[in-house]
Amino acid sequence: MLMVVDIFDQLSIHCERLHLNEGFKMYTNLLTTDQTVDYSVKEAGPIVVALAFVIAVGGLAAAAIIICGWRGVKSMGVNLSQRRVEIVCR
Amino acid sequence: MVRNCPFLTESDILSLSVGVTPDGTVLHDVPIGAKHTIHPPGEHVLHALAQGVSFRKLQAIALRHHIAERDVHELLGLLNTIGALKRQRTPWLRLRALGLQASHLLLGIRYATLSWRRNATLHTIAIALMRASWPVVIASAVTCGLVAATGVVSVAIAYGVGAYVLALLLASLLIHEMTHLHYIKAQQRGAIVLQRGMRLGIAHPALPPRVEIATAVAGPAAGIIACTSAALVCWIAGKPLLGIASLCVGSFHLGSLLPWYSDGATIFKVLRGRRHA
């Protein structure tokens, strides 16, 4: 029972954080921004996705080096249908 | 810790970006025609910033006009969000600030990155892209080295493919942002490029809903078309590996159509606004 209460507490904190993080706070006690201009739009999401992709490929290569040693990998790839990474050593 | 306020030392010289000027109770953002409302006694701080002032002196001005320190930080954070805050630092102070920020990071305190803002042109968007994507460049160099170290491909092939993918990513991003800008300029509106960390955006005055949606969709579509064209050329040239890599880069542009941020968020916001109207 105690665990259930804990989980709900954590959920409510999480939801509160999500709510607080919705968009920018575009007013302060000293300045309110013009609402007709949206300063937060059209961010280049692809940069973040590209970084995640590069890190994933780098991680796969690092794992292959750990398993097979320096220049010891014959082939490596990702099998999406079986959700599996395949690394073949020499 | 106030959100969006960058790390400031007392000797930093703070000022407003070019084209941002206070006039009475209005802060004009001339390049995009925005008029922000200044609430008293905020005009004292903003007029001091317009002249250029050290952070130490700004705090003294705020204290003289009974402005709370938190309000000053919030104002600076907001100015940073809209790219209106400029900070000047000597090289020695820059090193010291880096050390201080690193020590604060160990204590779990993180600061917002200072925004970089210019009038949106091909040249400034290209610079902003380079500034935003340097982590990708470094990560790519490391990854190419790791892939070469596995022995699957030679060093030349690993770095060759890496360089091609990186060049295509940057070129397609430039096309993506320039397409946004083309639509905005076609509506005779001003636009600025804002870069903060890995975030990059083009801020502009509100557009008619249909144009807003078209602008948001056209950017990623142009990026995807550019990458698909590059993939076709690679296949025709007998380089299927580069073709697959081009399609991967093209799929990154789909990320900006996710509804939580970026172009996707703009589309959903306009659609939601129309439904409420």
Can you describe this structure in just a few lines?
The complex is a heterodimer of chains A (90) and B (277). Helix content of chain A is 48%, strand content 19%.
* Beta-strand proportion of chain B: 5-15%
User: How many DSSP E strands of chain B?
Assistant: 9
Overall mean pLDDT score of chain A?
73
What would the average pLDDT of chain B be, to the nearest integer? 91
Radius of gyration of chain A: 23 Å
What's the helical proportion of residues of chain B? 55-70%
Radius of gyration of chain B: 22 Å
- Main interface: chain pair and counts: A-B, 45 and 74 residues
Major sheet description of chain B: 3 strands, antiparallel
Number of discrete helical segments of chain B: 10
Q: What distance separates the N and C termini of chain A?
A: 54 Å
The assembly state of the depicted protein chains is heterodimer
Work out the strand percent of chain A. Answer: 15-25%
Spans where pLDDT lies below 50 across 5 or more residues of chain A: 1-23
Number of helices of chain A: 2
What is the H/E string of chain B?
EEEEHEHHEHEHHHEEHHH
